[in-house]
Amino acid sequence: MGCGEFLVKYILFFTNLFFALAGLALLGLGVAVQLQGTAVIDIADSSYQVAPIASMVVGGVVFLIAFFGCCGAIRESNCMLITYSLFMIILMILKITLASLIFVNLDSLVQGVPNVLNDAFNRDRVAFQEIERAFTCCGPSGPLSYMNIALPETCCASQPCTPLNAYSGCDKQVQGLLETFGLAIGVVCIVVVAIELVAVVFGLCLANHARNKNRRSHY
């Protein structure tokens, strides 16, 4: 094996190691959003549920394919490397789609949070207390959302619960969650895609080297 093939082999190996970690990062971000925002996701429409689920699915698949790529690079298997490269191209398309959906729709999703919370609050104030517990907030826009009704215990850190010691509104808290994790997931997707492009090129180069090596061994 020449110096060039040696470098390509181990660059591909360590690149896939990075992909495995990035896949776990996407998976972790999706799980974090799903757990932190469970109360909101349960009452929201499907547009708020897609991103964390898609992030978990893509992250898990990236991790498995990256592991496959590591094995292909070390064994210099032409079949494994070609299969790996094809899967990586498909994943690149999926991640570009996911990142595009997040960046295009993030502002509208964030701006729609107050309406979603107000609808949930007016529909069932007892169920809305789950959101208040999860985000340590009070009402859609603050304690004034309850008008002349006594504030629930979930609105305050200590009792008795009054507007003076109540938490701020839930709309800002939920909007902050969406902005933070939405941008994080989108940026991770873009960074991974950029490096995946290099990995695909290296994978095809190493596959070609492995094929030529096998041909020479038969002569």
Automatic annotation (TrEMBL):
UniProt GO cellular component terms: plasma membrane
Membrane topology, from the record: Multi-pass membrane protein
Keyword Membrane in record: yes
Transmembrane feature ranges: 12-33, 53-74, 81-104, 181-207
InterPro entries xrefs: Tetraspanin/Peripherin, Tetraspanin_animals, Tetraspanin_CS, Tetraspanin_EC2_sf
Family the UniProt entry places it in: Belongs to the tetraspanin (TM4SF) family.
Keyword Membrane included in the entry's annotation: yes
Subcellular location: Membrane
Species, as recorded: Papilio xuthus
Protein name: Tetraspanin
Disulfide bond annotation, renumbered to this chain: 137-170, 138-156
Swiss-Prot/TrEMBL keywords: Disulfide bond, Membrane, Transmembrane, Transmembrane helix
Superkingdom: Eukaryota
Gene3D superfamilies: Tetraspanin (1.10.1450.10)
